[in-house]
Write a structure and sequence with these properties.
The radius of gyration is 19 Å and the shape is globular. It has helices at residues 34-47, 59-69, 144-149, 153-160, 168-178, 187-192, 227-241; strands at residues 11-14, 21-24, 49-52, 71-73, 81-82, 85-92, 95-96, 99-100, 124-131, 139-142, 163-166, 196-199, 201-203, 210-212, 219-221, 247-250, 257-261, 266-269, 280-287. Strands 1, 2, 3, 4, 5, 6, 9, 17 and 19 form a 9-stranded mixed sheet that branches. It is an alpha+beta fold. 24% of the residues lie in helices and 27% in strands. Strand 7 and strand 8 form a beta hairpin. The model has no long low-confidence stretch (mean pLDDT 92). The two termini are 36 Å apart. The chain has a single domain (11-287), classed as Double-stranded beta-helix (4-Layer Sandwich).
């Protein structure tokens, strides 16, 4: 898969057909020198999803490692942040006294990249598995980089000229429909997160490779297209990008630490039996500039 120089400080094992790798030989609880980190970062950019298994549950180290990639930001749903660590949001079905204490969405699969509804989407995210159900709750990743590169040259040229309007309000309306208890979006939030244009094709400033930026449930329109045309195009590209040859299913183990390149991959959660099992993840959002 790779023709780059070999890794000498870590062990890198490819996971998917076109992307994804397991990284061994690293403990986030220990100090890490520049040479080791340089290889971890290279693996991140080369494989776009990297899995570091059997890591300790150390929130301060999870934040430190996130900051090695970029700048951390508190999530928009601030009521679910981890006490003492505002950079970490709790995701799952954790309840205390019958009250949900983590961000919980257990609905149909929705392929997307994060923060597409802001002018500069996050560059990466980190997930840490705190508690995992015995079945279900996997995370699916799609290689939107290799998927774009596999398209015919004339289609690539056409897609490079398209812009999509991404809307947080549109996404929130769908979340409310799936979860009637969800708090409606405030007028202040609608103003703060007004619709933004995003290119359909993004070029990485690090690798120079191009990726499809697909988040159909967030796209309000594609200028120059009818709603039906835009929907058909996004559906066709999503089906192409999420074909088995471009996807990797991560079956979580407790202690897994996963970095993913938000601008070069898509992802989606999968359902689990939330009435029987607990699923709890720590997550950081990573930006390329300070918020």
């Amino acid at each position: 898969m790779s023709t780059a120089a070999p890794y000498t400080h870590i062990t890198v094992t490819p996971l998917g057909g076109t992307f994804g790798a397991r990284v061994d030989g690293v403990d986030i609880g220990a100090s890490i020198d520049d040479a080791v980190w340089a290889e971890v970062e290279r693996a991140f950019h080369e494989y776009r999803v990297i899995v570091l298994p059997n890591q300790p549950a150390l929130p301060e180290k999870i934040v430190d490692w996130s900051r090695r990639i970029g700048f951390t930001e508190a999530h928009i749903d601030s009521k679910y942040l981890l006490d003492g660590h505002p950079e970490i949001i709790k995701i799952g079905n954790l309840k205390e006294g019958g009250v949900m204490k983590s961000l919980f969405v257990n609905a149909r699969e929705e392929w997307h990249f994060d923060y597409s509804y802001v002018a500069k989407p996050s560059i990466a995210a980190l997930f840490y598995a705190v508690e995992i159900p015995p079945e279900g709750g996997d995370t699916l990743f799609a290689d939107s980089t290799a998927a774009f590169e596999a398209l015919p040259e004339d289609e690539k040229a056409y897609l490079r000229g398209l812009t999509c309007i991404h809307s947080w309000a549109r996404l929130h309306e769908q979340l409310e429909a799936m979860d009637p208890t969800r708090t409606p979006l405030s007028d202040e939030a609608k103003r703060k997160f007004a619709p933004v244009p995003q290119p359909l094709v993004f070029r990485s400033p690090v690798t120079g490779r191009e990726s499809l930026w697909l988040a159909p449930q967030v796209v309000a329109e594609i200028p120059g297209m009818s709603a039906a045309q835009a929907e058909a195009l996004l559906e066709r590209l999503t089906v192409h990008t999420t074909a088995p040859r471009f996807t990797y299913r991560h079956k979580w183990n407790k202690g897994d630490l996963v970095f993913f390149d938000n601008r070069g991959t898509l992802h989606t959660a999968t359902v689990f039996d939330y009435e029987r099992y607990l699923r709890l993840m720590y997550r950081t959002t990573i930006l390329d500039v300070a918020a």
